[in-house]
Every structure is written in C-alpha cells, then in structure tokens.
Design brief:
Two copies of one chain form a homodimer. The N and C termini of chain A lie close together (10 Å). Chain A contains 18 helices and two strands. In chain A, strand 1 and strand 2 (123-124) form a beta hairpin. Chain A has a single domain, classed as Farnesyl Diphosphate Synthase. Chain A is globular and about 55 Å long. Chain A has helices at 11-18, 26-34, 36-52, 58-68, 74-84, 91-115, 126-130, 132-153, 158-178, 187-212, 217-244, 247-250, 256-259, 265-270, 277-286, 295-307, 310-329, 336-350; strands at 119-120, 123-124. At the A-B interface, helix 4, helix 6, helix 8 and helix 9 of A face helix 4, helix 6, helix 8 and helix 9 of B.
Chain lengths: 353, 353
C-alpha cells in the first residue's frame, strides 16, 4: 500500500487508511479518522522504531523491505489502545507494540518462503528480491529483536507468555501443514488453526498492552475475549478476501491461499453443498504454481462459493465474531479507547484488504 | 552417528566417542574416556531434556529427527565443563547447556533449508523427510525453547547476551550469503564469518557456563579466549573435512560446502597458488546440485588443495588456534575440568567428523 493519500506522505495516516478501503462505510471512515489525534502520537514512535531496524546486509534489506511496506499496523494499534484503557502508553507498551509487529512480520517472512509467495503488500515478496535464505534469517532476526524488546519492557511473566504464543502459532502452522490440500479437513480443525495462527497474536497484543498499563483482572479477561474474537474475525475476512478481493486492492493474487493448499472456511462450507466444487479445487491444487490458474477454474470456484452461500456465510461468521468482540468491550470502562477498539472491530469486518 | 558401540546403547558415551573417530590418536581417546564419569553425569540429564522435546506434529518430528541423531554435544559439554571450573553444574548451567544445543540445532534446520542440504549426521536431512516448512518452523520452535531456558536460568543479562550472539550468527550468515560463490572473497572476510557463525556460539556456551558458576573476571576472560579459539579451530577443521573426509565417516557428502558456494579457507589459500583451481571451482559451482560432481572435477580440486599445501596449511591454522585455546587455559585454576577442556581442544583438531 505505501502512501496513497492526496496530501503529503503521512505514513501514520496511511496505516490507518489501510484499515479501510475507499469503498467501505463512510461513517466508519469518519469515526476512524477521529482516532487520528492519538493514533498519530501512539503509532509515530513505533513506526520510527520499525523503520529504523535492519542494516544494509541482504538480511537487513529483507527485513526492511517488508517493514517499510507498512501494512495495517493493526497489532501495535491494539497494544496502544489496550494500554490507554489503563495507565496509558508507556515505554513498556511501546516496546510490546513494536515486538508484536516484529513477530507478525517474522512469520510473514518465513511463510513466504514456505508458501513460495510471490507478492506481499502489493510488492514482490522479500524472498524474490533477496533470496529465501535472507528471508529466513531476516525472520529469525526480527524474532530475536521482538524478544529483546519484550524482555526490556520488563512486565513480569510477559516474555514467557510471548514465547507460549509463538509456540501456539507454530503448532497451528504445523496443523495447517498437516492438512495442506486436504479436502476432508473439518471445520473444527480449521478453527483451531485460525485461533492459533492469527487470534493468539491479537490476544497477546491486547493482553500485553493492558498488562503494561495495570488493568484489573476483569478488564483483562474482557480484553482477552475481545482479542480472540477480533483475531478470528480478522482471519475469516482474510480467507474471504482470497475469493472476493481483486489483486489491485488486495496487494496479492486472489485464490493464492487455495493454491497453497489452504482449505479455508468458505471452501469447507461450500464443499458439502456443491459436488462440482471438490473437483474444481483438486484441479486448482494440481495446477503447477508457476502457471496461472485457468480462468474457467477460478470462475467455477468463485461461482460455487457465491451460489452455495458459502462466501456470504463466512462473512456472516466474521460479523458474528466482531459482534462478540464488541460485546466483550461492555465490561470495560466507557472511554475513548474502548470506542476505538469497537471501531477497529467494525473496520476489520468491513475491510477489503 | 546414533549408537555405534559394541556394548549396549549408551547415548552419552556415543556422543563422546563422536569427538574422536577410530583412527585418531589413541592416547587422546584414552584421556577423553577419563571424562566418562562426570561427562556421563553432566550430559545424561541434558540428553534426556533434548530427546524429550518435540511433539508428534510434522514440526515436532523435524525437530526430534535432528536432535535424536545426536551429534557431538560438544557445546553442552563446554557449558558444563566451564561450570565445573566454578561452583559446579547447577540447574542454571543445565538450562544453558540445553539452550546452546537447541540454538545450534535450530541453525542446522534453517541452514539445511537454505542450502538444500540432503544429508545431515549420516541421515537424510529433516527437510527431506518432513518438508522445508516443517524444518523452518522446527528451527523457530527450538529457538523459542532455547530462549525460554536461558530466561529460566535467570543469570542476570544472559538472555541479552544470548540474543546478541544470535544476531552475530545471523550477521555472519548474511555476510557468507553475500559472498556465495565469490572466488574473490578475502581471508579476512572468511575469518569474520567463521568468528560469527561458529566461534560466537562456542564463546557464549563457555562464558555462560562460567557465569552460572560465579567465575571471576580474569577466569571469565580466559574462558572467553579459549572459546573463541576453539570455535575458530572447530570451523577450520569442518572446512578441511569437506575436502579430506569420506562420506561414511563424515555423515555427509564431501565437497558439499563448495557446492553450496562456500569459499572456505583451503580454497582461499589454494586459489592464488594454482591457476587451475579457479576454473575447477567454477565448474563445480556450475554443476547442477541434483547432479553428482564429475569425478574428474573432484580429483582436480582435491589434488590442487593437496599439492599447493592449502589443506595442510588450513589444518596447521586450526592447530595454531587450538594451541592458543590451550594457552588461554593457563590463566584458570589447575583442575580436572581445565584438563578436560584441553583434551577437547586437542580432540577438535584431531577429529575426522
């Protein structure tokens, strides 16, 4: 995405903009822009830290290439908003905010090597520019830096919690790997993968942010519940966008997840409803990755997901998780940061990339 | 290597045996077997921890496959011997000993993916059995577990030092990557890579072991110097073995480093001495990795390194570093652990795998 606004380049605003594509609800956009004041303040120093990382080596370039492309910075924003529910954004919160984004980017770097990803955030994947090796080492480098920052944040037990989250993410990736290309994957397995690979990091971001700011036990439980539902909703929409988004908005090729053998929610919903979907998925999986997917095949898959209502149902499931996330916020003190978290949840389900 | 002794399987002794191939100096072998008593005690619990790790997932299997193959366990032995120079082997020392082996194995898992390695420790590389993805995640998993253990060891500042060492290793790997297949690599660059990718972890293993046992500043400096020279010697011999070892003893194909584009010390020494060596190296680098190297080409390279004295000089350089390592030990109290470190240094230069 980089900078796509009319006025002078403002990286922080462009990150917020990225939460909403142009075509989404204008009132949501207006509400999100209200966040501008603090979000600018909270995210600016985090952004500065992120773009400062990485030297001129191939590994440093790999790391910087990805970090400089921006992305939504949604996870650091979660950390700072959670902190604002308590004592506010301290140095510890900022360390955690940078760390969570680094963990996220480390997984992206390793995932791209694993999935042979070619496009990420609208640009060639780092592995294509600097090689698989540099991407693997860059992922390791970012992970080490993330751990260093959480250690520096000095919240008792936080490093252990972070390491447990990374373990959960790896376990989920392993499970996803086991079911690669498996049309018989059940929905429970899929949801377990989603909770592990996506929701766990959101939960940690919000929980750790809250812990840096001394939130009480009840508020902490509420923020954890919010994080879990937000994370699941986020992944469900990600999955939907693989079938519904277009390449230009999305910053990557559609049907990319499917071609990587990921049997996502819409597919799992559609399969028992349409006998033609299975053969089409198998044909898509058998198409060599270096060849474009035949148009006919894409049309069959997309048509089926549309006709069977699978895509609509997946969107509805995401909306239900967003509703649960917003519901969880009710246990928190009524303040601007809480409203902002609600807006972010709504923006997540409305997003087009 | 796994278990290759006549008597009942004894993993700990087989690790010590691995330090010496059958054909090396018999008195060194005898002296090393004197270590048996404590080494058995010190390494047994570490070994139990190492083989307990990893679940039944693909990622867990990847990790266990490599850990169960054993290897020399030289780095954990360094930790425990350094600890024995002070207050002895505590729980903290054991955590660090396990951690250093985990970091080492994590780098092996990532390296095999990067180098497309096919054989490791005499068996197919984990990536061939469980896939590149599982190897990348398994490396991440071991790294996380290593960090958790160092954190648990609770030696002030140790986690930060460990993270700095991992950064140094990544930086060295990046430099090595930059000079991949580069016949103009200078010796200074090569040595910088060796210090970073190999010696740094040995230094940390020894230094951290000493710190768990309360060694004084002077002893700490001596152990650091020992670790650095031991590590450089170890890598120099590793490089030599790529040209001098045979596949059965080595547990991997000879000339594997060269084919991965690594211009190691013997090659850098030989290049200016023999105008035929450069073209032979280039031809070797151009041979597709899935094809065996033509016998003629291997003979040319090996003959040149022999004739120019490059191989002998690399061995001599390793021996000089071993001498410096042993020299550094003089500043330490005269005790059995110090003698054992001396023996290990001698064994390192005499080893054939």
């Amino acid at each position: 995405m980089s900078v796509a606004t009319d006025h002078a380049p403002e990286p922080v605003m462009s990150h917020l903009d990225a939460l909403l594509a142009d075509r989404t609800l204008p009132d949501l956009r207006a509400r999100l822009s209200e966040l501008d004041g603090w979000a600018r303040q909270d995210l600016a120093s985090i952004e500065a830290e992120l773009t400062r990382l990485g030297d001129s080596s191939l590994v440093g370039k790999s790391a910087r290439h990805l970090l400089a492309r921006g992305g939504k910075r949604l996870r650091p924003l979660c950390v700072t908003l959670a902190a604002r529910l308590g004592d506010g954004v301290t140095d510890a919160a900022r360390e955690v905010a940078v760390a969570v984004e680094l963990v996220h980017n480390a997984t992206l770097l390793h995932d791209d090597v694993i999935d042979l990803g070619e496009v990420r955030r609208g640009a060639p994947a780092a592995r294509l520019l600097y090689g698989n090796a540099a991407s693997i080492f860059a992922g390791d480098f970012l992970l080490v830096e993330a751990i260093r920052r959480v250690q520096r944040a000095a919240v008792p037990g936080e490093l252990e919690r972070m390491l447990a989250v990374i373990d959960t993410m790896i376990e989920a990736e392993a499970l996803q790997l086991l079911h690669k290309g498996d049309l018989a994957t059940d929905v429970a397995t899929y949801l377990h993968v989603v909770e592990g690979k996506t929701a766990a990091l959101f939960r940690w971001a919000l929980g750790a942010g809250a812990r840096t700011a001394g939130l009480g036990e009840r508020a902490q439980a509420a923020i954890d519940r919010y994080g879990r539902h937000l994370g699941v909703a986020f992944q469900l929409i990600d999955d939907v966008l693989d079938f519904a988004g277009d390449a230009a908005t999305l910053g990557k090729e559609p049907l990319a997840d499917l071609r990587e053998g990921k049997l996502t929610y819409p597919l799992l919903l559609g399969l028992p409803r349409d006998p033609d979907l299975g053969p089409a998925i198998r044909a898509a999986l058998e198409t060599p990755v270096d060849q474009p997917l035949p148009r006919e095949l894409s049309r069959t898959v997309l048509g089926s997901l549309d006709r069977t209502g699978a895509l609509a149902e997946a969107r509805a499931a995401a909306a239900a998780h967003v509703a649960s996330a917003i519901d969880a916020l009710a246990a928190l003190p009524q303040m601007a940061a809480r409203a902002a978290l609600g807006t972010i949840a709504e923006a997540t389900v409305a997003r087009e990339r």
